[in-house]
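User: Batch of two.

Assistant: Item 1 of 2:
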Amino acid sequence: MIKSEAFARICFFGDHQDYLNLPVISGTIDRKITLTATPNSEDKYILHLLDLDSVIVININENFNNIEAEDYFRSSLSILQQAGLVFEQGYTVEITGNIPVNAGVSSSSALVVAWIRFLVQAQKTPVAVSSTQIGQWAYAAEVGFFNQPGGLMDQYTIAQEGLLYIDTQTGSTSRLKPHLGQLVVAESGIAKETLTVLHNAREYGQKAIEAVQQVNPNFELYTAEPKDYALYLDKVPKVYQRHWYAAVHNYHLTLKAMNALQSASTDLFQIGKWMNEHQYILQDYIQNTPKAMVLQMEAARNAGALGAKIIGSGGGGCMLAMVTEKTKQKVIDAFLSNGAVAAYEIQLTSPL
């Protein structure tokens, strides 16, 4: 029997930045996908998705190159075949998890990472694979294979685990100190709109940068300063100006948070303040936060949350709140009494 698992992830700073080659701060939490596989006598992967009460059957001798969009099981097989892995033994696989689905905490990426980890373990000839490589393969299978608009944050974070600062331009990661106090996740009950929100935000952000580079061909966003927002504002078409603001200012909030989370001690009140600033940019400039969720986060702050933000691409999904032991239950109650369908404490997980 082979058992594989992967944890959900939360982006704390840098939402809608990884596809602009800007850094993010993200970490894995104690919600996970678990995959349990036993060999069978057929040349098939028989996948029992227990939470969805459905079964997927994959013949291991299929051609995995012509695949329908979002079939991440088969796209992962294709990517691993290209990397030289061989699939010879069929397995009956049970998959279950407690990650909210379509809610911004990367249930799909966790599933892909758990699936790839299983496929590596199932090799007849053992293969030594790093967590970094697992993340690269997962990104290729989920985003690159289908030419989707997302960045690499989800797959890299889930594969490597812990709290990470990810330089998305190079793919390098640095571990940060998990000094974020106590954390609460609330499920809004509103399904997120990943591809629509990502496509619009990515296109508008890139168009804004291109407009600036037409004036200054040497301009690079990762060297930008907050003053550059005003300096180039009139060069950016009005339709892209909100995303120009978001790109520059979210970037510097991420850098400030990174510096704070590298230190031996962290001012939680300051981190919470920066998180709130990040959320205001997401809701007012990228416009990825439904009004109902804005009101729920305002209620959480009024109940004592140090900071609160939407998780993931937006349009719906989950929210995060930084709390203290004294305010934790009050914040949970505030989320629930203002329309959230669930709210609970979560923990950051440690790296492998």
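Item 2 of 2:
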Amino acid sequence: MENEKKKKHIIREYIESIVIAILMALIIKAFIVQAFKIPSGSMIPTLKIGDHILVNKFIYGTKIPFTDKIIIPIKRPLRGDIVVFKFPEDEKKDFIKRVVGLPGDTVEIRNKRVYVNGNPVEESFAAHNDSIIYPSGIQPRDNFGPVVVPEESYFVMGDNRDFSLDSRYWGFVKLNKIKGKAFVIYWSWDGEDRWVRWDRIGMLIK
């Protein structure tokens, strides 16, 4: 009888430990940090396909779980922040891009060069791998705007500028749809060649 009670006590402790671990994991994912995998090349060279990243979910404010309502605002995204957000055309998908324009900014692209409020932006991280320059009448990739970013919204672009579907094509991202700021690569795997990119693990995202 005593052994049976002891076994039940051990089982209960295990169950309690598992439940607490699950609750802690859910709290961390909901409010603090969430992991994402990079599936496309739109952020090359900053982020590569197969990079696994961590995203700070509380930096822009705390939300009510399972909603987009911010209840404790902390800070706003800055130009240059790399953010994960709900894709405006399909909120079941998460996208990652770099913030280029803040609320009230005038954003324009002339021959691939980004201008904010009439001033050219220095972008050492931006990659242009297609020498063709399209006029705005054909597509918005290389010549776009000017547009004014609405309140509570952001203009975002991929670093791989010639191969990124971003605000040039589908518009602005609302603040409450932003999930957080990417800050570190915790794992990186080249699926094609099947090797680990050891040099990228632990790399801070800038």
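The two ends are 61 Å apart (CA to CA).
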